[in-house]
């Protein structure tokens, strides 16, 4: 498999006994929050493939984008610095931000930072990153643009292989996970998990918990970037060209299951009940979830495990802990502890 070896893999899987007892289900967590320190979280699995491609192309500058507390941007900057590359990030803001959390680490690790408004980010982030790339190229750099969350064809491989890792761990643990749940903010993690599930016939239910946007939006993104990943899987020997062609023709947005009801008041915005949920699980299991992704997703799990919920038929549930600890610190002064 052609990729960089950066993350601490395989990440462990833990059964959360007290939460399981409360829910009447077996709740497990895959600790992808422990893939590293400076580059902790799920993005590093995608970056191992994306940055490998950048190096093969002779690139010496990584450009990416995200919110002001983006885990992905921080991980990208960390990897760039580790490898001796330059990095630049486009960060979405509403007002001049304090230097804290992931943004502090972006600065500490030496990234060039450019800000944009929410509207600019939504409508023109690709154009702005290309403008940045052109400006750096004029200075003699060879830039490589990584889209939001590293959610593109090459990055999808990260969670394609993570699902294969999970299946191997099932054998060691003596358990089969019938349901895999993950927070979804750019679509790449969900796409990789479900693509591996479909291609290899694992027969699992893979659910993305939307933390922004809606089901239709993410279904279309996940289907498209999964199709884009197929040539990479051919190159890795996972598929034959004929199999890839069949999957390209047959893969549909409806292959991706998402719950859109737990976006709440918006991306990176928390309701009191979500913060109380994070606090409760921290005190119950000494497992800390973040307010942007995993907090909302696990809050949604709790709701869907209640009577009449869509997870009531699941028995062994694996939640992918995608990280985000640094994002808690900027809201610590207002957190209900």
CATH level 3 topology of the largest domain: Rossmann fold
Number of domains: 2
Report the top-level CATH class of the largest domain.
Answer: Alpha Beta
- The parts where pLDDT drops under 50 for at least 5 residues are none
Major sheet attributes: 6 strands, mixed
- Helical content band: 40-55%
Mean pLDDT across all residues, rounded?
97
Gyration radius, rounded:
19 Å
Total strands? 10
CATH architecture of the largest domain: 3-Layer(aba) Sandwich
In N-to-C order, the SSE pattern is: EHEHEHEHEHEHEHEHHEHHE
In spatial order, strands of the major sheet run 1-2-10-7-8-9
Shape assignment: globular
Task: Please give the count of helices.
Answer: 11
Sheet-strand content, in percent, reads 5-15%
> Class by helix and strand content?
alpha/beta
Multimeric state of these chains? single chain
End-to-end CA span: 45 Å
Describe what this molecule looks like in 3D.
The chain has 337 residues and is an alpha/beta fold. It has two domains: 13-41 and 152-334, Rossmann fold, CATH 3.40.50; 43-150, Rossmann fold (3-Layer(aba) Sandwich), CATH 3.40.50.1100. 45% of the residues lie in helices and 15% in strands. It contains eleven helices and ten strands. It has a six-stranded mixed beta sheet, sandwiched between helices. A four-stranded parallel beta sheet has the order 5-4-3-6. α7 (188-199) links the parallel β7 (179-184) and β8. The longest helix is centred in the middle third of the chain and has 21 residues, at 118-138. The protein is globular.
